[in-house]
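Tokens as discussed.
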């Protein structure tokens, strides 16, 4: 058996060799070395089941997050984590919040031991996609809606949650009603931005959700390309891409650091390493809401975490930065794909909220709150914040667990070798930015 050196935790693994999961007492469990400072040395999705001893209940919150995140990574879809000690119920209760946090689902009743399961991916060949438009400003809305209607993916619904005070947006929708599956909801009274985003998710029926802000644009193949990535890549929770910056006249303008491609080609990126680089540097190269696609199920209410705050991180509302709140929530649950082709356009103009000083100030405060939570949970510990854990999108299935560190192109890289940086980072007992 393998010891969790600082806590005495014993982790046991039932490797997947095509057999059935006969519960926590089945023969064949083996030891696996586990450390909160480094990923386990085992392939992704190699385990049929995992057993945790009662020592897991004594873990700090940050070590519990590391442990359960690795359990999720090691399990095959549908695989289970059992709390198998004499005090298994207490262990389950102690870790339940963090299991929910990393995307594991509690087992139902009539189990041999309490625990959690890894979700199985959907099996639909042609899943429904919900394009969600939290609308307010009618100026560019028609062009945005037209770009949604022009998608090459056939199985989609467009939901317009109109938070304006007039009828211009409703009139634009009515003029295009025969061109696609469009559903309009007019908010009276107004919901304001965050609640409008939340309502869009609540109204969605698709397997996947694709936000489109009322002043942005989607390339015609955007949805199709992202659905293809979800269907190809195991454990994917987010798809994003390079995006254009455009002005009020829809002309392309120069990239800024946040919109430069973070990697040089189509890549799968381990979720925590991607979020870590963006959060620790306060630079959103992952993307605005219009750039991203998620599974709708990843935004279903989590009883131990969400309450009435869908866009938060461990209870910290990310005020003024709903994009950070969206992708930080899902990236602790799995992997991301970055597509190098520009699949959306982010419009820069004088009327957008980001042009207002008070919005920028709120965003800065929100990102600082997120950084505080990220650091307190120790999610920075495995990767220096300029490194991403990557594998090429076109890698053969036999190499689906082979990851390598790669410097984020959007960020400055230190002069040391990658190996030296990782070794020093993981060996540092306390970093300067951690609270005393």
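Sequence:
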């Amino acid at each position: 058996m393998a010891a969790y050196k600082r806590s005495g935790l014993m982790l046991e693994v039932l490797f997947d060799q095509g057999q059935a999961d006969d519960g926590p007492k089945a023969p064949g469990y083996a030891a696996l070395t586990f450390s909160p400072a480094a990923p386990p040395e085992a392939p992704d999705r190699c385990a049929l089941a995992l057993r945790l001893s009662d020592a897991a209940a004594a873990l700090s919150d940050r070590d519990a997050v590391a442990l359960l995140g690795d359990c999720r990574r090691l399990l095959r879809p549908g695989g289970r984590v059992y709390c198998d000690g004499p005090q298994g119920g207490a262990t389950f209760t102690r870790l339940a919040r963090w299991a929910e946090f990393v995307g594991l689902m509690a087992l139902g009743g009539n189990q041999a031991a309490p625990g959690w399961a890894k979700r199985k991916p959907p099996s639909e060949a042609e899943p429904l996609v919900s394009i969600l438009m939290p609308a307010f400003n009618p100026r560019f809305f028609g062009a945005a809606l037209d770009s949604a209607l022009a998608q090459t993916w056939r199985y989609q619904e467009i939901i317009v949650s109109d938070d304006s005070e007039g009828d211009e947006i409703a009139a634009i929708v009515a003029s295009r009603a025969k061109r696609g599956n469009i559903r309009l909801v007019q908010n009276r009274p107004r919901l304001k931005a965050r609640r409008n985003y939340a309502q869009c998710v609540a109204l969605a029926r698709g397997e996947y959700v694709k936000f489109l802000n009322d002043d942005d644009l989607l390339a015609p193949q955007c949805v199709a390309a992202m659905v293809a990535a979800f269907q190809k890549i195991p454990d994917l929770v987010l798809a994003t891409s390079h995006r254009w910056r455009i002005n009020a006249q829809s002309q392309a303008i120069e990239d800024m650091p946040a919109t430069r491609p973070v990697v040089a080609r189509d890549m799968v990126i381990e979720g925590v390493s991607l979020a870590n680089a963006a959060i620790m540097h306060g630079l959103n190269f992952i993307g605005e809401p219009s750039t991203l696609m998620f599974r709708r199920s990843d935004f279903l209410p989590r009883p131990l975490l969400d309450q009435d705050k869908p866009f938060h991180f461990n209870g910290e509302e990310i005020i003024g930065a709903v994009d950070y709140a969206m992708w930080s929530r899902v990236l602790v649950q799995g992997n991301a794909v970055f597509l190098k082709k520009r699949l959306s356009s982010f419009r820069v103009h004088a009327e957008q909220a980001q042009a207002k000083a008070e919005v920028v100030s709120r965003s800065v405060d929100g990102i600082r709150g997120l950084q505080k939570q990220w650091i307190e949970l120790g999610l920075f510990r495995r990767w220096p914040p300029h490194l991403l854990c990557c594998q090429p999108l076109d890698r053969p299935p036999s190499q689906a667990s082979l990851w390598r560190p790669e410097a984020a192109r959007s960020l400055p890289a230190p002069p040391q070798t990658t190996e030296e940086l990782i070794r020093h980072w993981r060996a540092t007992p306390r970093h300067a930015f951690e609270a005393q």
